[in-house]
Amino acid sequence: MANTQASNGIFSQVIDFFASVKLAIVILIALAATSVIGTVLPQGEPLEMVVRRYGPATARLIGFFQLQDMYHSWWFQWLLLLLSANLIVCSLKRFSSTWKVIQAPPRSVNDGLFETLPFRKKMRLSTDLDASRERVSALLGKKFKTVKTLEAPSGLAFYAEKGRYSRLGVYLVHFSILVIFAGAIAGSLWGFKGFMDLKEGEAKDKITIKNSGEHRPLGFAVRCDRFLVSFYENGMPKEYRSDLSILQGGREIQKASIRVNDPFTYQGITFYQSTWDRVPSTVNLSLTQGEQVRKVTVAQGQITEISGTPYSLSLERFVNNLSDFGPALGLVLLKDRQEVDHSWILADHPGFHGNRLADFRIKVEEMKTRYVTGMQVNQDPGIWFIWVGSCLMLLGFIVAFYFSHQQVWVWIREKTDSKGKTRVELDFGGTAHKNRAGFILNLERLVNRWGSD
Do 427 and 408 sit in the same domain of this protein? Predict the structure, then answer.
């Protein structure tokens, strides 16, 4: 028996802890503080960048707590789960008493009832009981959905109410928060954010995940059929668009076009137009070594032999504007597949002294380029939970703040005064669980209209 009581006592303490408003406040403060950290500390950066910026010791601390990707960290998810537990336990603990109030029958009519109501009016009527009954039903029926006749010690009694289920508005808000949290956690655990770049005519079936750099298969291929860009008069890009094809098993399934702020979704994966660039398809070079001039055509990602020499060239990188010097080629000179030299070659400055690799002076004769589109690729399985939860939250706020459970009692009875004359008296009272001041003002107007009529 003692062990059972001790277990019940511990269980009650656990329930009280999770139902505590203080716990909710502490969690909300912690979430607010961490959000400030997430605003100050750049999110989504790889750890290598964090090490260079903050040093190894600080980077280890940031990496342990996952502060560089805070909203996907284990401790942030635990804060959300703890707040969810607080909301669930708090709601369940208070729901039973709220439901009892909703399902409770109206209180019986007596003199003591009207003394407990925040609004009470007593009037004398010039009509008889039957006429008063019709007048009460007509007036209350305009304002209240439900008008009932109650038993009374004498005379006639009426009860009117509306907004009984508005007491559940706060629980709808709590439920919506849980739905949003479920969506956020689902997106954090099973969603991803990645990047894909495609040259015109190129197809890929993998993306590069942000932060980790791992390659993730999509289950289908994406091909860039065409990329279009338009410019303002000052040379700034005005609009750019990628025309895509979805390929499944080598067969074209669907076509789509994406623009900035106009993404495309396929199988729950959304493609956003993010960046663009131009890359060389082929570059014609002249290599001067003493009196000898050789012509070489290179392409990015390929190794090209330099005829008549043991050397070869590899075009490793390309940038459209290197330190405001225009297009530049990152070339590597190889001998027996081993690097001999590397350098940036400026395409628009053939006389630049740095346009050299070992004994070769290099000049860009012609460069054919093609567009590359850069797309952000996201999958968030919890996004519909978040949309549904947001709609439920809006509905819950409307119900909780703009509706209230309003109740009115009316008691009409005949009384004989000291002169033996029979008069009809009316007791009118009401209450509301929200915005009582506004409710009382409306009842005052109703009673005044009744009296004027």
Answer: yes
Using the predicted structure, report yes or no on whether residue 5 has a pLDDT greater than 70. Answer: no
Range of the domain at 321: 279-373
Ramachandran quadrant class, 77 (left: phi over 0; alpha: psi -120 to 50; beta: rest): alpha
pTM of the model: 0.67
Three-state SS letters, 350-419: CCCCCCEECCEEEEEEEEEEEEEEEEEEEECCCHHHHHHHHHHHHHHHHHHHHCCCEEEEEEEEEEECCC
Residue at 226 is within a domain: no
DSSP one-letter code for 76:
H
Please indicate, yes or no, if residue 68 is contained in any of the structural domains.
yes
pLDDT, one tens digit per residue, over 390-415 is 999 999 999 988 899 999 999 988 87
How many other CB atoms are there within 10 angstroms of residue 391's CB atom?
Answer: 12
Task: Give 19-42 pLDDT, tens digit per residue.
Answer: 777 888 888 888 888 878 777 777
Beta partners for residue 193, in sequence order: 378
Which residue has 């969506």 as its token pair? 183
Residue 79 and residue 27 share a domain: yes
292 and 356 share a domain? yes
Asked if residue 327 lies in contact with residue 315, where contact means CB atoms within 8 angstroms, the answer is no
Q: Is residue 320 domain-resident?
A: yes
Note the helical H segments in 117-168.
Answer: 129-143
Do the domain assignments include residue 267?
no
